[in-house]
Amino acid sequence: MTSNSNLSNMRRLVEQLKLEASVERIKVSQAAAELQQYCLQNASKDALLVGVPTGSNPFREPRSCAVV
Amino acid sequence: KTSFNCIFNVSFSLRFKPFRRRPLPAQRKYMRSPLTPEMATQEVQLNETLAHLKTESETLKSKLEEERAKLHDVELHQVAEKVEGLGQFVMKTRRTLKGHGNKVLCMDWCKDKRRIVSSSQDGKVIVWDAFTTNKEHAVTMPCTWVMACAYAPSGCAVACGGLDNKCSVYPLSLDKNENLAAKKKSVAMHTNYLSACSFTNSDMQILTSSGDGTCALWDVESGQLLQSFHGHAADVLCLDLAPSETGNTFVSGGCDKKANVWDMRSGQCIQSFETHESDINSVRYYPSGDAFASGSDDATCRLYDLRADREVAIYSKESIIFGVSSVDFSLSGRLLFGGYNDYTINVWDVLKGTRVSILFGHENRVSTLRVSPDGTAFCTGSWDHTLRIWA
């Protein structure tokens, strides 16, 4: 019966919302600080951000034919 | 010339998405036979319970928003005010991969940081050496619109699928003359198009998302369904696995404007975010695994923090009105690259929320974008039939 399946869908939705409401959350200020810290800690390794010494980025070098 | 073409293409293709459906229809109302008095009472009771549940769900939804809002004490870009701004970026096309006969729909990098697999509307899946631009393998799929492709972690196989509703795995042979199609293994079976696929940490399991509204985890060897993920109310368009250190979760985005985070073992949706105003075309985890970005037809990219359980940044400009098809982070997570339907790539400062660069080159919409595994370059695929490597 359609009402029965609507009922079970609604029950599932309510259960899902209860689950989501019970998630433990932290403040945005703390979360943002940690995102920022990750960025800064890894910035030096990020080739697209800081660039790499000439010669070590294979894509920036002109293509050469490899003799196998 | 570019802007004229843009507008022309947009007018009929702005909302074009192959075989995208509206949210799943409510249950069909079957022909009813006349109600007996007992059935009538039952029906009234059911309706009362339904109304009660509806009220409960509304209350829970507002409680959820309230709890989230309580912790919203500051904006990400405010926290990042003291961070040094980024300088000028010199990023150019370093390689152009030509060979597809129609729109490129998807691409993926191999862990060796030089090979790429790409798939196209013409049914072809090609494996390239991005350093030399040589094609190493080519497979013709039995269907057109191969919307998803992925490289296996070992580099020894590729997975792909699309309008055939399946995800198939092709082992890559060292022998260039061998017919790859002969060794094809059908792994996943959905009831609508395959929109995305990804190997998990090994060659043994594949995660898929589909126009049928579900995601699924499959065992490659046996083709067995290990877990299915229900919760989206419309086509699921994209998925991304959490970085391996952070555990067994993945995020998916769909035509229902929702981004859902799932527990791979239980099949449960553990967090859900609904702030986009249109289809979510792409989702990608932040490198630490604590957040993810999304790109949508509403022309914005957004950042959601998983521990704060809310959206923490929007990357948008009034001048950007075309949908985002694909997003990815640079290695440190400081830069967010977005491929757009107006043929451009916008580069965003993730912390400050500002655009740092706009890249031109493609002659049609950018459909797919991935940063290489070691972060030295990123690759884009486009409806202009080509792929470009940028660095």
TrEMBL record, chain A:
- Its main localization is membrane
Give the membrane topology: Lipid-anchor
Q: Note whether Nuclease occurs among the keywords.
A: no
What top-level branch of life does the organism fall under?
Eukaryota
Quick one: a GO cellular component term? heterotrimeric G-protein complex
Where in or outside the cell it occurs: the entry states: Cell membrane
- What SMART domains does the annotation carry? G_gamma, GGL
Which UniProt key words apply to this protein? Cell membrane, Lipoprotein, Membrane, Methylation, Prenylation, Transducer
| InterPro entries listed in its UniProt record | G-protein_gamma, G-protein_gamma-like_dom, GGL_sf
What the entry lists under Pfam families is as follows: G-gamma
Q: Which PANTHER family match?
A: GUANINE NUCLEOTIDE-BINDING PROTEIN GAMMA SUBUNIT
Q: Oligomeric state and partners? A: G proteins are composed of 3 units; alpha, beta and gamma.
What is the protein's given name?
Answer: Guanine nucleotide-binding protein subunit gamma
Highest classification ranks of the organism: Eukaryota, Metazoa, Chordata, Craniata, Vertebrata
Automatic annotation (TrEMBL), chain B:
Question: Keyword Repeat, does the record have it?
Answer: yes
Extent of the WD repeats: 97-138, 187-228, 229-272, 273-314, 324-358, 359-391
- InterPro entries assigned: G-protein_beta_1-5, WD40/YVTN_repeat-like_dom_sf, WD40_G-protein_beta-like, WD40_PAC1, WD40_repeat_CS, WD40_repeat_dom_sf, WD40_rpt
| One Pfam family of this chain | WD40_Gbeta
Q: Where is the signal peptide?
A: none
Tree of life domain: Eukaryota
**Gene3D superfamilies reported in the protein's UniProt record:** YVTN repeat-like/Quinoprotein amine dehydrogenase
**What GO terms in the biological process aspect are recorded for it?**
signal transduction
Q: Which UniProt keywords apply?
A: Repeat, Transducer, WD repeat
Task: Indicate the quaternary assembly.
Answer: May interact with RGS9; this interaction stabilizes both proteins and increases RGS9 GTPase-activating protein (GAP) activity, hence accelerating the deactivation of D(2) dopamine receptor-mediated signaling.
Q: Which family does it belong to?
A: Belongs to the WD repeat G protein beta family.
Q: What is this protein called?
A: Guanine nucleotide binding protein (G protein), beta 5a
Biological source species: Echeneis naucrates
